[in-house]
Amino acid sequence: MRHRPRGEHIIRFDGVGLRYGLGPEVLQDITFALPSGSFHFLTGPSGAGKSSLLRLMYLGLRPTRGRVVLFDKDIALTKRYELPALRRRVGVVFQDFRLLDHLSALDNVALPLRVRGVKESEVQKHVPELLGWVGLTEQLHAKPSTLSGGQKQRVAIARAVIGRPDLLLADEPTGNVDDHIAMRLLHLFEELNKLGTTIVVATHNESIVQRFAQHPRLHLEHGTVQKVS
Fold first, then answer.
1. Which among 78, 137, 83, 87 has a CA at the least distance from the CA of 112?
2. Residue 175 falls in which region: left (phi positive, over 0), alpha (psi -120 to 50) or beta
3. Which of 91, 145, 169, 179 has its CA 20 to 30 A from that of 194?
C-alpha cells in the first residue's frame, strides 16, 4: 500500500456527467476532490445515483463527459493495460457481495493477498484474525451458500480491507447487519483510515452518519453532489 501524504487529492472529479445509453444524465456536473487519508460518507435518497458514483470512482464505469483523476492519473488518458494496477489499489464492498461460491470464507478473504503473492504463513495469520474481528471465527471454512446475508456482508468487507487499500469504497456496508456489528464495522473502517486509507461509505442510514458526525459527507441529490460539513 503506497500512501501519499495526507492532504493531497487521491481522487478528483471535474464536471463529470454520466448517462446510460441514450437516456438522460443520472449524474450531472459532478465536481469534488477527496484528500488522501480522508473519511467521507456518501449520502442521498434511494435512486439518487450513489452506486453509479461509486462505480465511476473504482473505474467500473467511464464518465459520459468530464474528467476523473485517480491516484494522479487522468483516466481518459490512461492506457487500458494500466487500469488493472490502479483498480488493485482500490478496495470495494459491493451491495451484492460478489463472493466466490466455491471458496470458503477464509479463502475468499485471502484471495487479494494470494494474488499479490503474500506468503501463505502471513495469509494464515492475518485472515483468521480479521474474520474474528468481524465476528466470523466459527465460519472460517463455511462456503457462501451456507452463510446469512449479514455474514456474507462481513466476509465481503473483510476481503475489501485485508490488503489495506489506498482507497476503500463501501456501498451500504451495514445494510444487512445489526447495530452492534454495524458499529464494529465502522470502527474497523476508522482504524484502516488511521493507517492512511481514504474511505468513502455510501449509506442511507442517517443514524450512523450522525454517530460518526466527525466525518464530512458528500450528499447526492438530483444528480449533483455537494459537500456537507
1. 87
2. alpha
3. 179
Assigned C-alpha cell, 42: 456518501
Phi/psi at 29 (nearest 5 deg)? 50, 50
**Distance from the first to the final alpha carbon of the chain:** 29
d(CA 154, CA 140) in angstroms, rounded, equals 12
**CA 2 – CA 163 distance, rounded (Å):** 11
pLDDT in tens, 18-67: 999 999 999 999 999 999 999 999 999 888 899 999 999 999 999 999 99
How is the chain classified by DSSP, letter by letter? --PPPBTBEEEEEEEEEEESTTS-EEEEEEEEEEETT-EEEEE--TTSSHHHHHHHHTTSS--SEEEEEETTEEGGGS-GGGHHHHHTTEEEE-TT----TTS-HHHHHHHHHHHTT--HHHHHHHHHHHHHHTT-GGGTT--GGGS-HHHHHHHHHHHHHTT--SEEEEESTTTTS-HHHHHHHHHHHHHHHHTT-EEEEE---HHHHHHTTTS-EEEEETTEEEEE-
Among 2-6, 89-93, 156-160, 215-219, where is mean pLDDT lowest? 2-6
Residue type, 163: G
Res 226: pLDDT:
80
65 close to 223: Cβ distance less than 8 angstroms: no
